[in-house]
Design brief:
Order of helices and strands: EEEHHEEHEHEEHEEEHEHHEEHEEHEEEH
Shape: globular
Oligomer: single chain
Radius of gyration: 20 Å
Helix content: 25-40%
Number of strands: 19
Number of domains: 1
Distance between the termini: 49 Å
Largest sheet: 5 strands, antiparallel
Strand content: 15-25%
């Protein structure tokens, strides 16, 4: 069956293999690619609302996943949005989830969420491709990686106003079951949380070698590490965490007063459960946190490399210096901040495949993308 295609792709257990073209498979022509992003996310960062931006970006994945009844599908979290692909049989449900998510983001968060889909065959007709690989952060948690230029091209198309889906009517709500944001920021232990995006300029054969080099550097030095650890995981600010979860719970049609009461109950319960390292039916605090850290989505490839690293300032300087030397064939942007943040999609806490999206707490991928655009524009002006 067409919908089973994604499950047939071998799972890679080494991230260095997940950035190599030979490990990718072309998506079928009749599949569809989807994209969503928060308009004005840079201003939201300036207003201190990046946690809400991340919640909406992760909410796109939760909404589509729940609409597909949690069938496996390829997706990637982008900080202020998300990209994904679905089989032709799942496309109508995914489009409905996108439209409902756009309405919810507008009414609950006052965000304009652009959403759109396109058949893969139309991406190929435009001269791009969409190929996918599967990387297992753990045996229980598998993430999609994308290559071929199709996702980046479609993102640009949607931002230009093409292939847009209209938001659902007022009052429409996506199913956001399992989405939460109760953890606080994770302070950098090495001094810097670095958000990094590296994308190709054209089809220069030096780009894959550059990505290999950057990944190898990041994986092989004690000066660079994953940005979330069991020691850094602490419950977040109660007011902010409860407000965000209240908003998510209203998506089910729950009255706001009840949603807030339940959000408060679960936040308090989490604080006690993890603070006292308790055990419950099918789950214990220590194992859950260990799985959260291992499953965390802090590195990915979606037509370019995205990484969130906890590193020293000297290591960040080294990476940025190497990228500056490659500007004739690579676009890149970096942003430094003092902490990382996590948004969680855990439909069942008793299953080990819970997903945790990591971004920089000070603007992360949004600010790195802004820096990349500014650098690209400056190079174009100087040409």
């Amino acid at each position: 069956m067409a919908g089973d295609f994604y499950e047939t792709i071998p799972v890679l257990d080494n991230f260095a293999d997940a950035v190599r073209a030979e490990n990718y498979r072309p998506l079928p022509d009749d599949w569809a690619v989807g994209f969503a992003d928060v308009v004005g996310s840079t201003q939201a960062v300036a207003n201190g609302r990046y946690k809400a931006v991340n919640m909406v970006g992760a909410g796109v994945i939760a909404a589509v996943g729940n609409a597909l009844r949690r069938r496996s599908f390829p997706f990637v979290f982008g900080g202020d949005g998300a990209s994904f692909a679905v089989s032709p049989g799942d496309a109508p449900a995914a489009e409905g989830a996108l439209a409902a998510m756009a309405a919810f983001a507008r009414e609950e968060f006052e965000f304009d969420l652009r959403v759109g889909t396109i058949p893969v065959r139309d991406v190929r007709a435009a001269g791009r491709d969409v190929r996918v690989a599967r990387y297992g952060a753990t045996p229980y948690c598998i993430y999609a990686m994308f290559m071929g230029g199709g996702l980046a091209w479609f993102e640009d198309q949607v931002k230009r106003g093409c292939h847009l889906l209209p938001a659902a009517p007022a009052g429409a709500r996506p199913d956001l079951s399992g989405l939460s944001c109760r953890w606080g920021v994770a302070p950098a232990k090495n001094g810097v949380v670095l958000s990094l995006i590296v994308a190709p300029r054209g089809d220069d054969p030096r780009f894959p070698k550059l990505v290999d080099e950057i990944v190898t550097l990041a994986l092989s030095t004690p000066a660079s590490d994953r940005p979330v650890t069991t020691a850094s995981l602490r419950p977040g600010d109660p007011a902010k965490a409860i407000a965000l979860e209240t908003a998510v719970r209203t998506a089910s049609g729950m009255p706001r007063a009840l949603a807030r009461a339940l959000a408060t109950y679960w936040y308090t319960g989490m604080t006690v459960f993890f603070g006292l390292r308790l055990r419950g039916p099918g789950v214990d605090a220590t194992s859950y946190k260990n799985d959260l850290v291992a499953n965390a989505d802090f590195r990915k490839f979606d037509d370019g490399l995205r990484m969130t690293l906890d590193c020293t300032a000297e290591f960040a300087d080294k990476l940025e210096g190497r990228l500056a030397a490659a500007e004739d064939y690579a676009n890149w942007g970096a942003f430094r901040q003092e902490a990382a943040q996590v948004t969680c999609f855990a439909p069942s806490v008793t299953e080990r495949g819970h997903v945790h999206f990591v971004d920089g707490a000070g603007g992360g991928y949004t600010m790195a993308a802004k820096a990349m655009k500014a650098r690209r524009d400056a190079l174009a002006s100087a040409a």
